[in-house]
Amino acid sequence: MIKQIAQALLAGCFLMSGCKKNDITPIATADVNNKTDLYPSAPAKWFGGSNPYYLPAGFVGDVMPYYANDSFHLFYLHDARNGAAGFHPWNKFTTKNLTEYNYNGVMIPYGSATDYDLALGTGSIVKVGDTYCAYYSGFNPNFNGSGGKYRDNILMATSKDLNNWQKNPSFLMKPETTNGYNFWEFRDPYIFYNTEKNEYWMLVAGQKDNQAAVMLYTCTDPIKGNWQLKDPLYTTSLYKVPETPQLFKWGSYWYLLFSENSATNTTRYRIASSSSGPWTTPVQDQLDGAYMYASKIASDGTNQYLFGWCPTKSGFTDMGNRDFGGNLVTHRLTKNADGTLNVSMPSSAENIFSTQLPLTVKLRPQQVSLDGNTVAFPNTTNASYILFDRIEGKRMITATITDVSAGAETGFVLGMDPQLQNTNFYRLRLSTIDGLIAGEEVTNPKPRVDAQLPFNLAPGKEYKIKLVIDGSVCVLYINDQTALTTRVYSANHNLWGLYAKNGTVKIKELAVKGW
Question: Which range has the worst mean pLDDT, 26-30, 72-76, 206-210?
Answer without folding.
Answer: 26-30
